[in-house]
Amino acid sequence: MRRLTFCTCLFLASCLLLAMISGTAQAQTPAALTVIRAGSLIDGTSDAARKNQLIFVRGNRIEKVADASSAQIPAGATVIDLSSSTVLPGLIDSHTHIFLWGEDPAKGGYDENILKAGIALRAARATFACRRALEQGFTTLRDVETEGAGYGDVEIKQAIAEGTIPGPRLFCATRAISTTGGYNLEGYAPELDMPRGAQLVDGPVEARKAARQQLEHGADWIKVYMTHRSWVDKQGNLVSQPTLTVEELKAIVDEVHGWQRKVACHAYNGIGLQRALDGGCDSIEHGLEITDAQIAQMARQGTWYCPTLSPYYDDWSAADTPEGKRDRARAAVHEISFKKAMQAHLKIVFGTDMGGIPWTEPLAQEFPRMVGLGMPPMDAIQSATSRAADMLEMKGEIGVLAPGAYADVIAVSGDPLKDINVLAHVRFVMHDGSVFKNEPAK
Ligand SMILES: [Zn+2]
Question: For ligand 1, a single-atom ion, which residues have Cβ within 5 Å?
Answer without folding.
Answer: 353
